[in-house]
Amino acid sequence: MKRTIASSLLWAVLLASPGIAAADAAPGDVIVTLGENLTNEQKQKVLDEMKAPDGAQTITVSNVEEHKYLDGLIPKAQIGTRAISSSMITIKEPGSGLHVETHNITWVTKEMYTNALITAGVKDADIYITAPFPVSGTAALTGLMKAYEISSDQAIPDDVKKVANKEMVQTAKLADSIGADKAVALLAKIKQEIANNPPQTDADLRALIEKIANDLGITLSENEINNLISLFHKMQNAHINWDQVNDQLSKAKEQLSAFLQSEEGKTFIQNLIDIFKEIWNAIKSAFSSNQQSTTPTSLTLEVGACNSPEVRADFVLLP
Predict the structure, then answer these.
(1) CB within 10 Å: which end of the chain, N or C, has fewer?
(2) Considering only CA atoms, which of 97, 39, 68, 91 is closest in space to residue 250?
(3) 312 - beta bridge partners?
(4) Angle at 150 between CA 5 and CA 46, to 5 degrees
(5) How far is the C-alpha of 280 from the C-alpha of 275, rounded, in Å?
(6) In this structure, are strands 297-303 and 311-317 parallel, antiparallel, or unpaired?
(7) Which of 129, 116, 134 is nearest to 191 (CA)?
(8) pLDDT in tens, 70-100
(9) Residue 180 burial (CB count, 10 A)
(10) Phi then psi dihedrals of residue 62, to 5 deg
(11) What are phi and psi for residue 304, nearest 5 degrees?
């Protein structure tokens, strides 16, 4: 997403990471992150799957690093004691936007990664995230931010890393109640509005969240609204480059509006159209039959929508 970075912070990161040299990012540069606890066989498996080029710079991500940014956000048992998730980041031409793909990642979607990476200031890159067996995927973001720092010669402040991880986890939790695509769309739209017109008070922020949720047809609990207010407070207080966030969100719009572009979304909308057509045709038919009868006519329609609760309409038509 963004943020201006002091070069002194970068050197602090590099000095704390022996053996890693900074490099100016250039299109085509590739950095691979490997979980520290992968076996040699597993490492080779993910490298082959990612089609990592020979000689690509490789860094390892430890379980300690994972816990640094995830403790307090999800149970320690969910983080685990081993670093497994791996990734490959390929720098693209300026203006290309972010493109994320995942494999064997069960809880965090590629759109959630995209959103969180934009918050962290990552831009213009192709990213592939994988594991040798199914994992939740919560730890992969840590490795990606570490790789981006090295490839771009830009240090990501700790407060930004933490809020990006918080965003990823909170979006995944929200997805459990409202669906992944809607959760991603909600977070992306709120961020875009904050970038364009920052709320001045808690009441403004709450009103913004509630309005966008309503516009997207999403019902949030009071606890979910409060969690979002807390998240966006942290974002507003972090060193985030909101202009860059807005720019990257615009480029990632197709990925982040996946629900409306998906077959499910299109089918849902078409079902709504079909419902109204059936209601109208039934009403016309009922009125036509009523011309020969003075008895009130009752009409019930039941239409099932894709992955949606049954829609039922009851009418009583009087002559």
Answers:
(1) C
(2) 97
(3) 302
(4) 140
(5) 9
(6) antiparallel
(7) 116
(8) 988 888 888 888 999 999 999 999 988 899 9
(9) 20
(10) -95, 160
(11) -90, 130
- pTM for the model stands at 0.69
Q: How far is CA 217 from CA 182, 186, 211, 220, 259, in A?
A: 9, 10, 10, 10, 12
CA distance 186 to 213: 7
What are the tens digits of pLDDT across the range 283-308?
A: 445 445 555 555 544 444 444 444 44
Tokens of 174: 């929200």
Residues making up the chain, counted from first to last: 319
Nearest to 92 by CA among 152, 154, 9: 152
Edge to edge, the sheet with strand 86-91 lists: 57-61, 30-35, 86-91, 125-130, 98-102
Q: Could you say which residues of the chain have pLDDT below 70?
A: 1-25, 254-319
Residue given tokens 């931010």 in the structure block: 145
What pLDDT, on the 0 to 100 scale, is given for residue 51? 94
pLDDT at residue number 263: 56
Q: Which residue has the tokens 């019930």?
A: 300
pLDDT for res 150: 87
The residue type found at 3 is: R
Q: Which amino acid type is present at position 44?
A: Q
Q: What is the C-alpha separation between 109 and 280, in angstroms, rounded? A: 40
CB 112 within 8 A of CB 47: no
